[in-house]
Amino acid sequence: MNNAPLSPTPRPVCVLGLGLIGGSLVRDLREAGRPVFGWNRSTATVEAATADGVDASTDLVATLHRAAAQDALLVLGVPVPALPTLLEAVAAHAPDCGLTDVVSVKGDVLETVTAHGLAGRYVGGHPMAGTADSGWDATTVGLFRDAVWVVTHDNAQDDPAWVDVWRRVVEMAETTGAVVVPARTAAHDSAVARISHLPHVVAEALSITADRGGALALSLAATSFRDGTRVAGTAPHLVQAMCENNRDALVTALDETLALLTSARDALTDPDDGIGTMAHDGHDARLRYEAFAGRTRETPANRPLIRVQPGAPGWLDQLHYAETLGARIDVF
Amino acid sequence: MNNAPLSPTPRPVCVLGLGLIGGSLVRDLREAGRPVFGWNRSTATVEAATADGVDASTDLVATLHRAAAQDALLVLGVPVPALPTLLEAVAAHAPDCGLTDVVSVKGDVLETVTAHGLAGRYVGGHPMAGTADSGWDATTVGLFRDAVWVVTHDNAQDDPAWVDVWRRVVEMAETTGAVVVPARTAAHDSAVARISHLPHVVAEALSITADRGGALALSLAATSFRDGTRVAGTAPHLVQAMCENNRDALVTALDETLALLTSARDALTDPDDGIGTMAHDGHDARLRYEAFAGRTRETPANRPLIRVQPGAPGWLDQLHYAETLGARIDVF
User: Fold this and answer.
1) Is the dihedral of CA B316, B130, B210, A148 positive or negative?
2) Residue B331 lies in a domain
3) Tens place of pLDDT per residue across chain A (332 aa)
4) Does A24 lie in the same domain as A165?
5) CA A283 to CA A291: how far, in whole Å?
6) What is the pLDDT of residues B186-236, one digit of tens each?
7) What residues of chain A, 223 to 282, have a C-beta less than 8 Å from chain B?
8) CA A151, CA A169: separation in Å to the nearest integer?
9) Chain A partners within 8 Å of B234 (Cβ)
10) Do B84 and B169 sit in the same domain of this protein?
11) End residue of a domain, out of B228, B251, B274
12) Which PANTHER family does this one have (chains A, B) (predicted)?
């Protein structure tokens, strides 16, 4: 492990919440020799992290004072319902620290951060990685390698201090081996509703419908069913939390899917009609996905690349352009 | 390869249609040393099969005369639209041969077979195996190993000749290494609508909905989307054929899914409600599937087993019992 200080002396990262995502981030930053410390509410988690060599504490106020003194970048790594209490403490004890988060849906977080008067130092983040497991025991080095890490910029400020936070967030994500893709909050939340939350809801419905066919149906199920319902194996409270935190965007996507399925249903009841159009459109859409995501999943370097100079004239336009392409960025 | 004749001299199998399923069946039977010959409409296919050592012909009438003379078991391996013409020839040239098929949906086949006066020697079959590829070039030894091969018995006859056909079909399926699961036509068609055709339709709708989110959505898609839409990569004409051949059962299943998704949608628009119930029910259903199908997929011997003596008193009740359990059968 390379613990040699970088030049100039790097400012630390302070991760608030040491679950799967926050904890794995701490491990990656340590592995890269970056200064990092963390806080978690649970004594058991902090003890486990400490035993693994992590600088962690259960004392939130002391942790925030330390973050403020060292100009740390704060990373919010707690579930959405725990955010208001945590942000209250941040506003009281470390209001000038740069702030980011590793929570999935970005709308609620931005709203809550804004409500606590902290938007001027906030850059949203969403590392798109995870496993079915959770908690410190599930944390691992390399969880984010080649994963997309969405970084938002809705609340971009002319203030160089905000641009500095943005740059630090991108650099932190890159340190983990993630691929940074910029997006605005609404675009991000709509996209994840379509490609993650909707598939979860649909998988639940598919599972229930098959189950009503009894043992025969379950026993005949092959790979189309197994893959199509895999995410119904996710813990229900996690599905509920991710979907309910993104209600508006999910309802929009669900309405589109309902309209498509209703139209397929009607076409199937008409002997002169059928699902040819939908089968073709769905196939085309899947091919577009494979052309983009399949290629870039194997080789992240295949993803379109947009070069960005933070704070330079037109740099936000570059970020918007990258958003429409799903491009990664190269910061210089 | 063991080409030694079994005792008594085994009657041959005659496979009509040498696509992926029919052709792979021919390969398996040859590999097991069973007498088998085949027919295909296309000269190119017959030439390719012959080059691979298969006894094949493009002459349907001659093939059927040979089948009649040798008391062959006829296997229908053509797409549903080609069935009426083929069955007309069977009725004209080999009406007393035992008859089965390897077509997916069983309702249409039974109806067409009955319309051609051939139900008295017919036992339906559905080997649940396949790949995205088709045609002779895709055929392979071992395609059906450990796969479920559904065998139907709606039109069971007291006639010992029908019982003999049923026994021959089961034995042929077992020769390929498949697991025989008995089911009646309606139960089979309802089950495959729920676990195969519905997942295909839903995957098309999911793909289209994500695609409408543009490059950003496609670029953020991870495993939940990839797995949930995998079968949208199936050739559209195959999806169309399988779904449109099972319209009634598919519409019933689709209506149930639409009701579930509509109720989830409404719950998401109510701030006091949410998708907790659906997430729990879907999770429970997936666990039941994993408990049954997951276990039996890895180790087919884990599937419940019902012993059946064809033609013995109560044997059809045993088949119905097996159907409700999704059980395999052991014929003695």
Assistant:
1) positive
2) no
3) 444 445 567 899 999 999 999 999 999 999 999 999 999 999 999 999 999 999 999 999 999 999 999 999 999 999 889 999 999 999 999 999 999 999 889 999 999 999 999 999 999 999 998 766 678 999 999 999 999 999 999 988 889 999 999 999 999 999 999 999 999 999 999 999 999 999 999 999 999 999 999 999 998 988 889 999 999 999 999 899 899 999 999 999 999 999 999 999 999 999 999 999 999 999 999 999 998 876 777 677 788 999 999 999 999 999 999 999 999 999 99
4) yes
5) 12
6) 999 999 999 999 999 999 999 999 999 999 999 898 888 999 999 999 999
7) 223-237, 239-240, 243-244, 247, 250-251, 253-258, 260-262, 264-265, 268-269, 274-276, 278-282
8) 8
9) 283
10) yes
11) B274
12) PREPHENATE DEHYDROGENASE, PREPHENATE DEHYDROGENASE [NADP(+)]
Same domain, A143 and A209: no
Q: Count of alpha carbons within 13 Å of A264, Cβ hemisphere only?
A: 38
Whether residues B132 and B203 share a domain: the answer is no
Q: Torsions phi, psi of A79, nearest 5?
A: -65, 155
Region B75-102 average pLDDT: 96
Residues B205 and B244 in one domain: yes
A interface test, pick of B104, B194, B296, B324 with most A CB neighbours within 10 Å: B194
Which residue shows structure tokens 């859409």?
A285
Backbone angles phi, psi at B116, to 5 degrees: -95, 15
Q: Are residues A226 and A270 in the same domain?
A: yes
Q: A 302-321 residues with CB below 8 A of B?
A: 303
**In this structure, is residue B68 part of a structural domain?**
yes
Give the whole-angstrom CA distance, residue B315 versus residue B307.
9
Count structural domains, chain B.
2
Indicate which CATH number applies to the domain containing A137: 3.40.50.720
Q: Is the domain of B56 the same as that of B151?
A: yes
In a domain, B299, yes or no: no
Query: Can you list the positions of beta strands (E) in A61-214?
Result: 73-76, 98-101, 125-127, 148-151, 179-182
- Tell me: do A178 and A192 sit in the same domain: no
pLDDT of residue B5: 47
Provide the token pair at A22: 């926050």
User: Considering the domain boundaries, does residue A84 fall inside one?
Assistant: yes
